[in-house]
Amino acid sequence: MAESTSEVLAGGVVLAVAIGFLAWAAQGTGFGAAGGSYDLRASFQSAEGISVGTDVRLAGVKVGTVSALSLNPTTFYADATLSLQSAVQLPSDSAALVSSEGLLGGSFVELRPGGMEDVLTAGAEIEDTQGSVSLIGLLMKFVGKSAEDALQ
């Protein structure tokens, strides 16, 4: 009888830890976030490095995720839908940039708030965007410039 009681208790502890871990993981991914969310749109010339589920950050803090990403056949830009926490109200002249965490880090969408008093409403478009910067392209410019300087 004592063995079965200890087994049931051990099983209960394992189950409680598993439920706690799932709740913690859900909070980290944005599931179950209190307050709801709203969507904004943004078009990037290059969305390299971001995909559905990529973080959207404001001042380094995650405030949303990329919920959709598609190619606009008219402009040939990448149209992104950003799902933001309802508590985050951005000025209408805010900017969205594809940023990198470093040389080996992943990419995320960085929001830079503007100074206007009116705010972006659900479904609005962030007009000021900057796509990802190609590291190889920058290196090629530097190497090309260095070679050009050496010939002079």
TrEMBL record:
Ranges of residues in domain Mce/MlaD: 37-114
Cross-referenced Pfam families: MlaD (PF02470)
InterPro entries: ABC_MlaD (IPR030970), Mce/MlaD (IPR003399), MlaD_Phospholipid_Transporter (IPR052336)
Name of the protein this chain belongs to: Outer membrane lipid asymmetry maintenance protein MlaD
Originating gene: mlaD
